[in-house]
Specification:
189 residues, 9 helices
């Protein structure tokens, strides 16, 4: 599969349904519009169910293998968790010694432009999960994924605090809409 075929944003509705359900089933239920599939009185429930199915599948994928071996899955998971929020949230993926997902937790919730993060609470949660490593994440509701100086300083502080208990910070993602910026890829970690 080449890079273009994985960019599902550019696929047609029919292609998306075929990828999810198979071509035969997709042709049987798709009549040129998605509204009949997701519309109606329980549209919110249907969309929430679809989102939950994708979240559960990504959870399974991240729990079954090294999370670092599938950075696309990590990005997708974090975009689902944080991408649509109207306020800042800070969370972490807690990983075992093989970098498999133990749990994801949203640790702090803030306002439109900031959230307070307490290293002590992050350390306590890492110990509770018996995590060997973490991937930190927070969102920028503004839609701009660039890390601020405060984001960089917080990442250093958390990495230092967690190192004291032998927990590695493997990455820190900033999610802004459909974008998920990696500190590790930028050389900031």
């Amino acid at each position: 599969m080449n890079a273009d075929s994985r960019d599902v944003k550019h696929w047609s509705d029919a292609a998306l349904l075929a990828a999810l359900l198979g071509p035969r089933k997709a042709r049987a239920i798709y009549a040129g519009k998605l509204q009949p599939l997701f519309g109606g009185t329980n549209a919110d429930e249907k969309l929430a169910a679809a989102r939950e199915i994708v979240t559960r599948w990504l959870n399974e994928e991240l729990g079954a293998k090294d999370a670092l071996a599938s950075p696309g899955s990590v990005r997708s998971f974090l975009r689902l968790q944080l991408g649509g929020k109207e306020h800042e949230c800070f969370g972490a993926l807690f990983l075992d010694a093989q970098n498999k997902l133990i749990a994801y937790e949203e640790l702090f919730r803030g306002t439109l432009t900031q959230t307070s993060v307490y290293p002590r609470e992050v350390v306590k949660t890492a110990l509770r999960h018996n995590a060997a490593a973490l991937v930190l994440a927070h969102n920028h509701p503004s839609g701009v994924a660039e890390p601020s100086l405060q984001d960089q300083a917080l990442t250093r502080t958390l990495a230092e605090a967690l190192a004291l208990i032998d927990v590695k910070v493997l990455d820190h993602f900033i999610v802004a809409g459909a974008t998920a910026l990696s500190f590790a890829e930028r050389g900031l970690l």
